[in-house]
Amino acid sequence: MKKVLIAAVALMMGASLSLAGMGIQWSNGGGWMAEYGGDVDAGPFVLDNNNVIWQLIYAGADNVANAPDLSKDNYLGGDDSMLANREIEKGGGTAADGTQWDNYLMQLDGDVLYQDLDWNTSGFVYERIWQGTPSVEDGGYYFDSGLLEINTAYVTGSPSQELNYSDGNGVAINNYIEGTGPGPEPPEPPAVPEPATMSLLGLGALAMVLRRKLSK
Ligand SMILES: [Ca+2]
Hints:
Largest sheet: 6 strands, antiparallel
Number of helices: 2
Strand content: 25-35%
Bound molecules: calcium ion
Shape: elongated
Radius of gyration: 26 Å
Number of domains: 1
Low-confidence stretches: 168-189
Number of strands: 14
Mean pLDDT: 80
Structural class: alpha+beta
Helix content: 10-25%
């Protein structure tokens, strides 16, 4: 009887251990997404002229969302790895996970929950949305969400976590420069005084010189 009890307890513990994992609803907060350079209200929207590749990514042991690397699998840089993805055709459509989206990435149907009940590694996840299919020749544009810390205590039926693109660091859009990977952030233009300011400064200096000369 005692042995049976121990076996039962071990089984229960094993079962609960294997059930701990992560459950994340990854979405975008309700559709809003203008094409790169487009108007958030008027468009064109991200799927009007492009397909979309939408990735759910584990940020790796460094807990950092690394910049993409087009030469790597799934365009992932650093130690990042992909957990799931959706490919949506131009104009909108249904991804392989059954979710359905319109041209501005508003969800029409499906279940956005990603779950891995065997996941027990701490760390962070984030979303990356590619406008079009990136290529070394033509580059591409992507949108990153912020990082979400994984709750590894998720079990089936417990509350899942939500990860929305709109929870991210605003519209973080990066431009690829041809063949070189991610381009640097565009530098802040140096603060050059306006021509009018320059001439005012010049007049001021002239006035001071004249005043000095006159006061002698
Ligand atoms: Ca990383």
